[in-house]
Every structure is written in C-alpha cells, then in structure tokens.
Description:
By secondary structure, the protein is of the alpha/beta class. The chain contains 11 helices and 9 strands. InterPro entries: AB_hydrolase, AB_hydrolase_1, AB_hydrolase_fold.
Amino acid sequence: MTIVDGLETVTSPDGTSIGYRTYGSGPGVVLVPGALHSGHHYQELACCLADEFTIYAMDRRGRPGSGRQLPHHSIDDECADVMAVMEKTGASRLFGHSSGGVVALQTALRVQVTKVAVYEPAVMGPASVPPVKDLAAMERALAEGRQTDAFAMLAKGESGPVPKMPLFALKMLFRLASKGTNARFREYVDAVAAFPAEQRMIMGLGAEADRYRELATETLVLLGARTGGELARGARFLAATAPGARLQVLAGLNHDAPDEKAPGRVAAELRPYFSRSSL
C-alpha cells in the first residue's frame, strides 16, 4: 500500500493498482463508482456520512487513481479489486452506483459482506436493452481518437432531454463543450475510453441475472422516482429477485443523485440502513 497526494493504493491480484480515498471514521463502507466516475466525484456523499462511517471511495480500474491502461474488464477482476480494498481496510459494507452497483452486488455473491446498498444498479435482466446499441461504432470512434464523439454516443443512449437531439447535433455540441472550462465534462470525456469494455462486461451478466436469487445478503436498492427505462427496470428486477433485497423509491431524484444532484438525500437513506444491525 502506498499513499500519493492523499490517494492510497492497493494492488489487485492481477497486478492492477487500485486507488481509494478515505473519509471519516467508524464502520467501513467501500464506495464503488459508476461508469465514467472516480471516487472523488462522491466526495460530498462521503462527507455527509463521515461523522459515523469510514468511507473508502475507490477508483475502479481505468480511472485516474488506479491503473490507467485500458484493462480487460472482467467481473471477476472488478470484484477482486473491491475485495482488495475490503481486505486492506477491514470494511464489510458496500455501496455502489450504476455499474458500480453491479460490481458491489457481484462482490457480495463471491465473499461475505455485512450489507450492500446500491443506487440504480445497471442490472440487466433477460430482456434488457443496452444504453449504447452500437458499441462497435463507439469503439471505432475511440480508436480514431474521437473521444468526444464517443461520449456523445453514450449520452444519446441515456434518459433525459439530451437524447432527443440528433446524434450529429449532439456531437457538435459536445465538441464545443470540450473546448470550455467545465472540468467534470472533460473528466467524463477522458473516462469514456473504458466504457465499452465495462458495458460488454455488464451485458455478459444479463444471461446470469437469475443468479441474484442466491444473494441472501441484506440489500437496499435505491431508485430515483424520475429515473425510467432500463435502470428503473433493473432496480425493480433486482428487488424482486434477490431474497435479501428491498426497494426504496426516492421522490424527485434521478440517476445523478449520489454524485451531483442530491448526495445529502442519498446519505439520509444510507445512514440508518448501514447503522442498524442486520436482520
């Protein structure tokens, strides 16, 4: 384990360096970010919980604080990364957002954890439709160095007002935005290179969706009432399938609640859940 500019690192079994940031004190919770996100994007959420818990906000492989080479994303490797952080820190609770929620859930299927909480996990049931229908086109754009165009393809597949724009117009808009000063936008564009491999990993798990029937770990599934589409269907599928899961719908929230829109609201749900004893 090393510490660089406040970022601690551990080495996963395949040799990949995995970074994490530590907030607070108390029982440990490993926070697993969603696609395009790093641990520092959840700083406000972590700080809202830091008076009662120690939050270990990790950078998944391919993120700035971890191994940046484009890795082969297998669910076994991603779960091993989480377990490496758990082993080093002693944390036994997991919180995951979006695709990070899937990694948290899959980790709980492989190793004993005290509790799991997920916010709109990108769980794909048997009839799910991927957010980017043509991953090959996205990969071609990345291979040609057109990362902003690749990010536009991803945004086109998400819910909300942006996908209503034609793709060519969205690409032009994002190219203009990439020349601006919005640091978060630039981080997303930089991180999109890892998305296709992560998405293929998530899609591959769709055929094994019934395995969540084996997830006896107590699981809190959080869903924003303003989120629809595959994310909402995935959250409801998980809550109906996993024996230890219950669904909590949060009025007025959407997919960006944990990191941008309402981290305090999400923390208010996580605090009592992680505090009380398991049933």
